[in-house]
Design goal:
This protein is an all-beta fold and 113 residues long. The protein contains no helices and 11 strands. Strands 2, 4, 5, 6, 9, 10 and 11 form a 7-stranded mixed beta sheet that branches. 30% of the residues are buried. The model has no long low-confidence stretch (mean pLDDT 95).
Length: 113
């Protein structure tokens, strides 16, 4: 499975961005796609995920009510509204099936105050 992330950028606090992650190859079955992020000097943290078959979504508490994950065919989107400076990070797309996981390259999101 190959994942291609895009959509990062520089915005001001309160603005919005949409990240995209296009998956190719092997996304059938019990596949889950989502996003993690890593802020400068910090570890990678979970942001959101979506289960391919059920459509079930999950969010970190820090982004609930502001971020929305959605899927269109083999692309997963992360709509990020009301961005805060603490959302500044490199965002990584992740796909998983069972114990296998796949990562896309990071896309940088910078939120200025």
């Amino acid at each position: 499975v190959q994942l291609q992330a895009s959509g990062g950028g520089l915005v001001q606090a309160g603005e919005s961005l949409r990240l995209s992650c296009a998956a190719s190859g092997g996304t059938s079955g019990n596949f889950v796609m989502g996003w993690f992020r890593q802020a400068p000097g910090k570890g990678r943290e979970f942001v959101s995920r979506l289960a391919w078959i059920s459509g079930t979504t999950d969010y970190a508490e820090s982004v609930k009510g502001r971020f929305t994950i959605a899927r269109d065919k083999n692309t997963v989107y992360l709509q990020m509204n009301s961005l805060k400076p603490e959302d500044t990070a490199d965002y990584y797309c992740r796909g998983a099936r069972g114990t296998a996981e796949y990562w896309g390259q990071g896309t940088q999101v910078t939120v200025s105050s």
